[in-house]
Amino acid sequence: MPPLRSEIPLGTFAAYSPRGTSDTSIRSRQVRDIVKGVRRPLFEQFLDEMQAAPYREALAHVLGPDVIVVPVPRSAPLVNGGLWPGREIAEGLVSRGLAAEMRPMLSRVHAVPKSAFAKYGERPVPQTHYNSLDCEPSMISGTRITVIDDIVTKGATMLACAWRISDVLPGATIAAFSLIRTMGLRPDVEAIIDPHGGTINGAAYWSDRRDGNE
Fold first, then answer.
1. Strand (E) positions, 87-168?
2. Torsional sign, CA 117, 123, 125, 131
3. What are phi and psi for residue 102, nearest 5 degrees?
4. How does pLDDT run across 106-160, given as a tens digit for each residue?
5. Which of 24, 33, 35, 64 is 20 to 30 A from 183 (CA-CA)?
6. Residue 212 forms part of a structural domain
């Protein structure tokens, strides 16, 4: 049984507004769709932006040349030829020198409801995700591991992934990175590219606490 209360560092590169009406908010949803669909070459161009020195510095707490990146599985077991945005992002980070190597250690054993389509209060909690995941033991050369996803809202999946990795690598330092964060409690976003550091806190799932980002 994983701990009910734990916290991991989180870094995100961009933000999007689900309902905002400003030009920037509308464009942010277009960027979200490009990332979720891995629509090249725009997807690659978006990742290229991350190579700028100020962005590297802003995300140094979760990415870097000594970090092993582990893609977050999709909500259902992967099918042959299926799209896996987390893996595409992880591979893109490695190819740009923003991470050391990619290890697809995590897999989904059985499907869970998609958070994006869940009603308020019915999103799968970290324990649900944890029970649906498997992690293969892996010999790795470093101790810094970052789980990688395309979009984060509250971070339940990423927290569960960190728990699963801790099961097999208890000495690892684990963080999370998502290319985009959901700004669901704000009407509009002022900028799409907006590197942000924070935490995913398991306590949020066993209390009434809510925040504006994750």
1. 101-102, 106-108, 133-135, 144-152
2. negative
3. -110, 130
4. 999 999 988 766 666 678 889 999 999 999 987 777 789 999 999 999 899 999 9
5. 64
6. no
